[in-house]
Each structure stands twice: as C-alpha cells, then as structure tokens.
Amino acid sequence: MRIVLKLALLSVAPLLTINAWAQIPSLAKCTRSANLLVCADADGNAYSVNTVGSTIYLRGFEKTGKRYWAQTNSRYGQLTFFTGIASDGEAWVGYNRRVGWTTINRFSSSGGSSAKFTCSRIAGC
C-alpha cells in the first residue's frame, strides 16, 4: 500500500508550485527522460518508473523495511492490472478500473493485506 501512496504523490507533484515545494521538503526529487522517471526522497527511498507502450515497470527501495521491490502494470483501455514482488518475498496483485471520474481499486498481497477502495477526482479516496 505504501507504494500506491508514493505513486499517488508522484502524480500530484507536478501540480505543486515552487512555493509549495519549499513548504513540503519531504517530496521526492526526480529526474526524467523520455520513458524513464527516477526519484529519491529525503527519507532514503528511491524508485523508478519506466514506460514501454501500455506497460509500466516500477522498481524501488524502501528504506524503513530495507527491501527492494518491483511492480509491473499493464493497461487495457480503462483497466490496469498490476503484479509486484519484494525482496522479502511478499507478492501482490490487483487492478484499477476507471469509470468516468472514479477509479475502483482492488489489491491483495501474500502478507495478508487486501483492500477495495474507490477514488474520485472530486472527493478523493
């Protein structure tokens, strides 16, 4: 779940102004090329996002858990499936489905976590 929240922050980061950046020093600093985005935050976490067609490859390192992780997202129209694995053996699967301005999200992990939640552009999650 921490991964999903970090990626959500990444999608919001471009909307922040320079003044807001100065007020929120814990946001990740990123470097971007045509298909690759590499980020690191002040807490020592690092992650990358690589886009190849409709597939997105995510890789990262979580400092608190001292674990590496990888996730692959495949998009088919309004439906995105994802699978991931971490260096401690945890694996997860899930999907996101867009319906208008609403996103229906569901995931399950081998660590026992699972959730289904709905997010709206207006009301949030």
SSE diagram, text form:
Elements lengths: L1 H11 L5 H6 L5 E4 L3 E5 L5 E7 L2 E8 L4 E10 L2 E8 L4 E9 L2 E8 L4 E7 L5
Antiparallel strand pairs: 1-2, 2-3, 3-4, 4-5, 5-6, 6-7, 7-8, 8-9
Structure, described:
By secondary structure, the protein is mainly β. The protein has one domain: Lipocalin. The protein has two helices and nine strands; from the N terminus they run ααβββββββββ. Strands 1-2-3-4-5-6-7-8-9 form a nine-stranded antiparallel β-sheet, with no helix packed on it. It is globular. It starts with a helix and ends in a 5-residue tail after the last strand. The model is unreliable at 4-23 (pLDDT under 50).
| Main beta sheet strand tally, sense and closure | 9 strands, antiparallel
Low-confidence stretches: 4-23
Number of domains: 1
CATH topology (level 3) name: Lipocalin
CATH class: Mainly Beta
| Count of β-strands | 9
**Rg estimate, integer Å:** 15 Å
Keywords: Signal
Protein name: Glutamine synthetase
Signal peptide: 1-22
